[in-house]
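Two folds, back to back.
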Amino acid sequence: MIGERIKQARFLRRMSQRDLAAKVGVSATAISKYEKGLITPGSRVLLKLARALDVRVEFFLRPALVKAIKPAFRKRQAFPRKDEKALLAHIRDWIERYLEVELILYGKPKAFEYPVGFPRPVQTWDQVEQAALDLREAWELGIDPIETLTQLLEDRGVKVGTLSSSEAFDACTFVVTAEGEIPVIVVKRGLPGDRMRFNLAHELGHLLLQPAENLSPEKVAQRFAGAFLVPKPAVLFELGQHRNVLSLYELHLLKHKYGLSMQAWIFRARDLGIISESLFRSLNRIFRARGWHREEPGDPYPPEHPVRFKRMVIQAFNEKLISKKRAEELLGRSFEDFAEEVAREHGGLTVALCDG
């Protein structure tokens, strides 16, 4: 177990075995043997490893809650192998801390139950549209805008995380086995809110749908994302049966009502036959010519933030189930840094700590 933790921390820091060996003062062969579990580092070497890798010694002793994970990455360009290894190490570290605090509070991770009829095989685009409607019905959402998609998924038992990464990474999804199957979605941190919501819905599509061989899994997930965020009846209500023109102003207002980008609205209108293929292509050309495919005009849709994990850590600390040091280990930062983030995101709000 210690060997796996050493490798994980090394990947986190994007270090080679030779780099780590030089910092610790041992041979690269010794590092390799530590990681393979052939030999166990003594306490003095373990301290040096912790300093070199910028982790606490307790990190190496943390029990393994997650076995090997193989997320399905959605990448927009070539993803360097070193970056992928570092991202996997970050994801594994985060999800293990998430599961650990759930064990502390509830004795087991929060369960996820697939809605009746899911995962669902789909063979046509109409079936994808219907799947989105059926999921909304199962989750009692109606056809109204989803106020906070991140919170909805967290409440349903999906673990949602955001991580900083290179420009190549967009999102990934996978299932962790820990007393049952736990779906996990990780998206890139710092994205505009509408893009983040689309990525979350896209990954949800990968979790819940099983496309036929004649359908592209990516296109199915993309269609599902738009249909889940703005189902067909809502699109028809807002746009009508047929349109010859779509104005930027109208698209912008709809973006802020439903949390779906202007470009995604254009796709929805084309997919449902509301606008012609020629108008769709014309609008796409305008967006690309003016750079709006990267940054849409007007004020941006506000980002969403997963909060359940942080809230659970603070709850465990205030209920005296964990110490301040243990809370900091779970948060992956000091309380001071956490308090600064809370104040920055919530208008100066302070984090009440229970020291008594």
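---
second:
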Amino acid sequence: MIDYRPPLLHRNAHLASILPSQFRKVRGLKPLKPEKITLPDGDFIEVERIRSGFKTCVILLHGLEGSTSSGYMRGMAKALQEEYDLVLMNHRSCGPTPNLFLTSYHSGKTDDVRSLIAHLNEYDSFIVIGFSLGGNIALKLGGETDLLDKRVTHIAGISVPTDLAGSSKTLSQTQNILYLNRFLSQLKRKALNKIKRLGDSSLDVALIKEAKDLHAFDNAYTAPIHGFADADDYYTKCSANAFIGQIKVPTLIVNAHNDTFLSGGCYPHEIVNRNKQVELICPKFGGHVGFAQNHRMDKPFWSEEVVASFLRESKDIRKT
């Protein structure tokens, strides 16, 4: 695959990450149909679908505090819409409708994706593609071989924090303070609104309000609400690095070397080298979920072309 050669402004890691997030407009996407899917525990997820009659469905998973409206979700959908049906999934708490339970989403929450796949029983095969946090979910899903639906044939992750503990620390560095504060503001607001709306809980509201970084927030909210002992337990049990070695379907990981969100542990070359099913591509540039190919950002992004090429080079996964 051709290496990524960014336009001048996008050689800067922060501009590569921020400009697409704030200014990219995806045009030419087929109409998206919203759908609410009830989950086994009685809660729901909200998705947007493109149905074209293909027998392979691509499921797209967004990153931390993203949604189906995120530019990278819509850009990838556009890149693949002529070859596959698509389902863009909102994680719990990220859709337009408030969820029913305190349970939210996290970097290892694969059960909702499995429930979505089970619901979509009209398809012969699935491809799961995740971005950032969603990429960690996708890779963990692939490594949970005893639970993985046999119809899942391929997996891809873009800008994946495969080492959650390391990435959490990296996000607390000075260069990432603006991103961190934005994430924390949104996460705290959602958590506190849920607690207020749904009534009393065992959660310590003061600890949530006082959280200064993701580790503190995960200690106060994410871990206890999802059954982990603490943030470190959550990171250990959910980091994709613990699952990549078990993946048995063709898998692609694309992590830029200048991604300011990722720690050194998010470039798991040694793990990947022991699993022939997994390919890790680490271009010099790209930022976090960036990879624009021109300043106007009206061309397909490099990451989209790489994923599309990866899928086309695999045989017998597209059936019409």
